């Protein structure tokens, strides 16, 4: 009998042997013998199935071994991260519902006349739910992008209106931080998906405003050998050199200080890459950083 014969087959074989012993000790009627024969047939079928399964497993294992690359190893970290993001994107609807319920309950609780300690707890609960919701939406947006569930259609995009609108969206936030936020007018055009580029630029400006303390944030463009650099300058404390290498990875050590865990930078980086561009950063500790989003340049129609 094969070593790998399933335990169920062994049990059936023992049952058949017991049936034969019973038949020898006590004469059986025709239906009793029929039962014994059925048991024998079942045992024979299970035995054949077990042997066939072992042979199929061996063939499949040999095929996997033959087709696998010689240097194949565990999945790369980026591949593993993308796989997790695909799972999150698929579960997004089910995850969003309880989060929305928590936010609704917290907001409803704060409409009641509560004692001061309970009122403070209610406000803290609502603030925590809002922060969690912000982080959740960033995670979901990144998950959809990683799972290729975002639509991209590159076409010529004028940067003049795009930069103006992006800066206008953050003027109030910059004012609250005591910052001067401005952009340099431009007539340059790039090949990009306009909504996705607007999203990436929004994340970069939001990050610049969040890290800057005094001074200001400047947004501008430069033409470089058939490409355009869309740059966002901040006057923050800079990014430690030890953290630059992992800056555009989800949940990097640099992101711990931000409500969105710096996932906005990861989003901007991946959007740029999906459009055939690149996002880079230069930072000087104590002076600030500049993020440069490079995209193909499109000549003006009059040229």
Q: What is the helical fraction, as a range of percent?
A: 55-70%
Kindly, what is the distance between the CA atoms of the first and last residues, rounded to a whole number of angstroms? 84 Å
Output the helix-strand order. HHHHHEHHEEHEEHHEE
Q: Please give the domain count.
A: 3
List descriptors:
Heat Shock Protein 90, 10 helices, 3 domains, seven-stranded mixed sheet, 303 residues, Helix Hairpins, single chain, alpha+beta
Your description of this structure?
- The protein is an alpha+beta fold.
- 56% of the residues lie in helices and 15% in strands.
- It is built from ten helices and seven strands.
- It has helices at 7-25, 30-67, 77-90, 92-109, 116-146, 159-168, 171-176, 194-211, 241-244, 263-274; strands spanning 155-158, 180-183, 189-192, 216-224, 227-233, 278-284, 288-298.
- Strands 1, 2, 3, 4, 5, 6 and 7 form a seven-stranded mixed beta sheet that branches.
- It starts with 6 loop residues before the first helix and ends in a 5-residue tail after the last strand.
Helices, strands, pairings?
Blueprint: H1 7-25, H2 30-67, H3 77-90, H4 92-109, H5 116-146, E1 155-158, H6 159-168, H7 171-176, E2 180-183, E3 189-192, H8 194-211, E4 216-224, E5 227-233, H9 241-244, H10 263-274, E6 278-284, E7 288-298
Parallel strand pairs: 2-4
Antiparallel strand pairs: 1-3, 3-7, 4-5, 5-7, 6-7
